[in-house]
């Protein structure tokens, strides 16, 4: 059984229920196509917020480091990153990009996408 997780923007929680990500996973469609029926969605985490709200960079943020440690302990192999990682110009948030790099340095594969809009 493979374990995967989802990373989203903390501010997306203001308007997002996660239903699109979860529906795509449950129906094995969009970016979750090809996963086996026994694949477990074992983690759903957020970033540490924008610089205006949290001046700590992800590498310095004890909470983000603890989350990534937990992902490793839980043997999460892949993290999907929601569309909320993109700004209005289609550019990826630098904080999310840094967290993705941290995940990859721990051997966790990052897939940029969950569901299609």
From TrEMBL:
Protein name: CGGC domain-containing protein
Superkingdom of the source species: Bacteria
SMART domains (UniProt xref): CGGC (SM01078)
Organism of this sequence: Blautia parvula
Domain CGGC: from-to ranges: 3-115
Cross-referenced Pfam families: CGGC
PROSITE patterns on file: PROKAR_LIPOPROTEIN
Lineage: Bacteria, Bacillati, Bacillota, Clostridia, Lachnospirales
């Amino acid at each position: 059984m493979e374990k995967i997780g989802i990373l989203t923007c903390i501010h997306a929680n203001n308007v997002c229920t996660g239903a699109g990500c979860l529906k795509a996973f449950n129906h094995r469609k969009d970016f979750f196509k090809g996963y086996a029926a026994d694949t477990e969605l074992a983690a759903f985490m957020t970033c540490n917020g924008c610089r205006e709200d949290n001046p700590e960079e992800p590498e310095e943020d004890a909470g983000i480091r603890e989350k990534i440690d937990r992902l490793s302990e839980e043997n999460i192999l892949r993290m999907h990153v929601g569309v909320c990682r993109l700004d209005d110009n289609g550019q990826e948030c630098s904080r999310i990009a840094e967290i993705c790099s941290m995940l990859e340095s721990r051997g966790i594969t990052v897939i940029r996408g969950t569901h299609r809009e």
